[in-house]
Amino acid sequence: MNLIFKERTIQKALVISSILLLCFILFELKYFVTGLLGSIALYVVCRGVFLKWIEKYHWPKELSIWLMLLLIIVCFGVPIWLMLELLIPKINEIVQHPQKMIQSFNPVITYFENNELIQRFDFSISQDQILAIVNKVLGYIPSTLNWVGQFFANIFVALFILYFMLSSNREMERDFSVKSGSDRGLRL
């Protein structure tokens, strides 16, 4: 009886330890969930073209994988890179010279001061209010840069996972269809 109790205690301890370890791993990997979901979405989008390349046109699988990854990088990476190339100098200019930003609002202030409809409501904007708004916007820049870093890390994770999904696409699909649909007759 004592031996059975010890075996069950050990089994319960192993199950609890496994659950805690799984929770810890999932908590630590929560930043990569977006990359995983992105790779699944990219796989669904690219699957048809990829299979056409390797099955209909008989292209080598590795060449097709690398060409698909290159097309994804060009389609998504180039516009993002161009956007960042245009925005970063503007952000640097605002950070280094906030007075120029405030001066660019002078025509708006003049419009508000000279508009009769707005004057009826006693609405006015001061330089201090504009400076407070600019400082508030500048406060968001570090968190935005952090988001950009996470975004590129997720793109890298998505492309990394997509590479392996494409390299073993039929085996992966067969494994999912067998595990998820064998008792219900479902097939991919």
Observed structural traits:
mainly alpha, 85% helix, 188 residues, 0% strand
Percent in helix: over 70%
Oligomer: single chain
Largest sheet: none
Shape: flat
Radius of gyration: 28 Å
The low-pLDDT segments are: none
Topology:
Layout: H1 2-28, H2 33-56, H3 61-96, H4 98-104, H5 106-114, H6 116-119, H7 127-139, H8 141-167, H9 169-181
Helix pairs in contact: 2-3, 2-8, 3-4, 3-8, 4-7
Task: Explain what you see.
This protein has 188 residues and is mainly alpha-helical. The protein has nine helices and no strands. The chain has helices at residues 2-28, 33-56, 61-96, 98-104, 106-114, 116-119, 127-139, 141-167, 169-181. Helix 3 packs antiparallel against helix 8 (141-167). The model has no long low-confidence stretch (mean pLDDT 85).
Structure summarized in a few sentences:
With 188 residues, this protein is an all-alpha fold. It has helices spanning 2-28, 33-56, 61-96, 98-104, 106-114, 116-119, 127-139, 141-167, 169-181. It contains nine helices and no strands.
